Amino acid sequence: xxxxxxxxxxxxxxxxxxxxxxxxxxxxxxxxxxxxxxxxxxxxxxxxxxxxxxxxxxxxxxxxxxxxxxxxxxxxxxxxxxxxxxxxxxxxxxxxxxxxxxxxxxxxxxxxxxxxxxxxxxxxxxxxxxxxxxxxxxxxxxxxxxxxxxxxxxxxxxxxxxxxxxxxxxxxxxxxxxxxxxxxxxxxxxxxxxxxxxxxxxxxxxxxxxxxxxxxxxxxxxxxxxxxxxxxxxxxxxxxxxxxxxxxxxxxxxxxxxxxxxxxxxxxxxxxxxxxxxxxxxxxxxxxxxxxxxxxxxxxxxxxxxxxxxxxxxxxxxxxxxxxxxxxxxxxxxxxxxxxxxxxxxxxxxxxxx
Length: 354
Ligand code: SF4
Hints:
Elements: E1 8-10, H1 15-21, E2 25-29, E3 53-55, E4 58-60, H2 63-72, E5 77-81, H3 89-103, E6 108-114, H4 120-127, E7 132-136, H5 145-162, E8 167-173, H6 178-188, E9 194-199, H7 207-213, H8 226-236, E10 243-247, H9 249-263, E11 271-272, E12 278-283, H10 288-296, E13 302-305, E14 310-313, H11 318-323, E15 330-334, E16 342-347
Parallel strand pairs: 2-5, 5-6, 6-7, 7-8, 8-9, 9-10
Antiparallel strand pairs: 1-10, 2-3, 3-4, 11-12, 12-14, 12-15, 13-14, 15-16
Helix pairs in contact: 2-3, 4-5
Iron/sulfur cluster (SF4) binds next to loops.
């Protein structure tokens, strides 16, 4: 069945996916080292193998940095990813514990894990603070039968520790691997309650292989046949109670990310747009103190944004301040996220008031 968010589902969505689609999940990237080296990995060059932690778009050094981003983004849960979070087990459990202490038990935390480093001790450690676990099995890159059975045993163990309802798998939808994906799901079905299938997409780091071996859709970044393969997988399991979610690129970019932007706090005097960006009227001072002194002669409605070294103005004051000819005022449209990615920026002129 097609969902309102352009994805497809069989039965229900797991809790992690439900919150993610509403934009309520903080994405916590604990570090880029991984126990595997999948050719299709979508990590950017900047993140691959990097020890830097990120909470959404914010580089983080401490748990307090992560908590602050959760507050700023109004998150009600977090999804922990990497690399392999088990390479960073202490950092991972410490961050998850800090989030649970700060926001309470209801703050839902899910984690994505490749399987090489998984063992009972690590799973038990994670289970103290993490609610939902989703594994990325190796069979797409290594069809070795004994490795597959070993990984199935690990997932079975996780299911005993986390509960079947909180255990699942997550896979990129490589269209030519449809049969293998179906066979794997059949084997793992007794131990999991959900499967998340991601539409296969082009990224900086898999560009060469994909452009050589696959056909792209008209949008030039999704892979032809990926959604169709996913729909056929959904059909195969329609008489089971397995929850399968086929998450499309459109779902991620147009709904999940858009919803996350809408929830993110904005700075004073910002005006939200329909695209979920924010418009600010700004002065970028050469000398902050001097500009503030001058500004105070005309208005008390302004906000000093020290992090970006700028002053934000109230929209209704802009024309008055412009008319003084004392200030250079800009219109800046940007994402409300920590990196404040700009979508447009221009200096206000007479024409803007006509
Ligand atoms: S397991 Fe995930 S993060 Fe690691 S290489 Fe594979 S796709 Fe990338």
